[in-house]
Amino acid sequence: TKETLLPKLHNIKEKINNILQDSRNGRLIKNGINIAIVGKPNVGKSSILNKLLDEEKAIVTNIAGTTRDIVEGSMTLNGFLVNFIDTAGIRETNDVVEKIGVEKSLKVIDEADLIIIVLNNNEEMTDYEKELIESVPEEKRIIFVNKSDLDTKLSLNDEFITGNTLSYDNLEPLRK
Prior knowledge:
With 176 residues, this protein is of the alpha/beta class. The chain contains five helices and six strands, in the order αβαββαβαββα. A six-stranded mixed sheet has the order 2-3-1-4-5-6, sandwiched between helices. The protein is elongated, with a radius of gyration of 19 Å.
């Protein structure tokens, strides 16, 4: 009957949810936490990756679209393996190679455990950036406002971390 089966089904559902959560936690412990660094071109994604890893993993230039493919690097942070994924700048483009990079970036956003959305302090937010922030749940994102040493043109209502990629010290709040 309903009175007999319903409590048992709720109990089974709770046990299944606990198993699923434990398996997710086990995957994170075994494989690490995948953190995607995303944003439009030239916001400092590759510089952030290089500074956090303390190595020149990604090519950094002032030319928009330098990163066209995924660049990954790992480190141990507070005892956990963290896999950083630097993505191509997301924008509309006619360049075939850059389009593939943008498609890969969008896929990484869907699959990552955490997203660092990078914005420029010295530029107004684009519609795409607003959509990106709205599309990623708050518990799955960190907003990092880069280039804090420049004049502020960015207006943002969400919580964010401020810094710049000129020195590692300026990324310490993001690392924490």
